Amino acid sequence: MLSTGGLAPATAQEIPNDFSAIVRQKLPAVVAITTRQIIQDQTTLNDFLNPFDGGGRIQPQVREALGSGFVISPEGYIVTNNHVVADATEIHVVFSDKETAPARVVGRDPATDIAVLKVDPRPNMTATAWGDSDAMQPGAWTIAIGSPFGLGGTVTVGVLSARSRDIQAGPYDDFLQTDASINRGNSGGPLFNARGEVIGVNTAIVSPSGGSIGIGFAVPSRTARTIVDQLISTGRIERGFIGVRLQEITPSIAEALGMPGAKGALVASVEAGSPAQKAGIQAGDVITRFNDKDIQGVHDLTLAAASQKPGSKVTVTTNRGGTNQELSLTVDRRRDQEEQTGAIPSLGTEDQRLGMSLSAIPDEARQQLGLQADTTGVFVQDVAPNSLAAESGIRPGDVIVSANNRNMTQPSDVREEWAKSRQQKKPVLFRIDRQGQSLFVAVANS
């Protein structure tokens, strides 16, 4: 007889025979999303570099893409991924009964890869309900429904593999990991718990082949629900801002600061006039708690601060010279919201964005980046996933030395050249310094 090792046997309720009842209830609320992007009069890179060679023009092209989504209210609001609908010229939603409806974008948040669509309400429209992603523990059942490879209504089942995964997709990564099979076309679809509640929005996979190997990631409902509510009510996202530049604490830094461990976020600098400065936070402080939440590192503090509603009051615990102190801070609103969500602001229509967050070159980064003392340019802080910049190979840490043969000295220079190239319907040619090596990158205005 095999021993159970002291564990009580699982009940039939804990291990259901199947998930057919949940699938029958929720399948009508899950949709396939098809998009079309029409690219007209795009000039080839050869035309741009050799304008007198008489090169030909590319004929208008149509790009089609497929994703998934789910109805969140009977009014016709549908949740999906931003990368499914970004830059789409046409968007259609296909319901489980094969009926198709046109959809419009209500709002998008590239930083969390969440978007909200709207269709005309249908009679007796089935909607999903949000669940509590924070209550999910590794080993709990997960159910994914979507349209992988165009196969609508596909159901896969697995377990929650891990929580709070940072896969370097964006500044606010906090993914759920599941081994429920997720493939191309599942993006934007729901991840359900065993009660049929949405606890995540399927977004990404790790795969060397392009197919599922049992490592999928979903935006937790805690994050997605907040973003969706804001997009529906205002069409935009407001994130908290405290005004500090941070860096991770290494064991050697912790030792130099006289701290017992490497937990917390080290304040590298404080922005003048920011909430942090007004609260008394100084460079060299280590933030260890934020509103009763322990801060393990920079990522924790970034998420905690961004999730606060502007105007809210929080308590920040800092360690300065080995002494802890509690400070009261009033969270402000980000004034550079478009840059922080991966888009250069005020470059034209909302759907044509380069997708980079830019700044002057940080003095402390010059040696690390391998830059010469006389190198000038604009520092790429972040690159939005699936943006034009990302697709062209630009990376965080690159320094844009010139654009269209014009030297760049500040972020506004890049914006000006990008706007000019868009008006001329030509690619913008960047000269990049990457770890001391020079290279050219052409970004098409599509």
From TrEMBL:
One GO MF term attached to the UniProt entry: serine-type endopeptidase activity
Family annotation (Pfam families): PDZ_2, PDZ_6, Trypsin_2
Primary location: periplasm
Active site, per annotation: 83 (charge relay system), 113 (charge relay system), 187 (charge relay system)
Localization annotation: Periplasm
PROSITE patterns, per database record: PDZ
Keyword field contains Protease: yes
One record GO biological process: proteolysis
Keywords: Hydrolase, Periplasm, Plasmid, Protease, Repeat, Serine protease, Signal
PDZ domain segment(s): 231-322, 330-410
This protein's GO CC annotations: periplasmic space
Residues reported in the UniProt entry to bind substrate: 83, 113, 185-187
Protein name (Swiss-Prot/TrEMBL): Do family serine endopeptidase
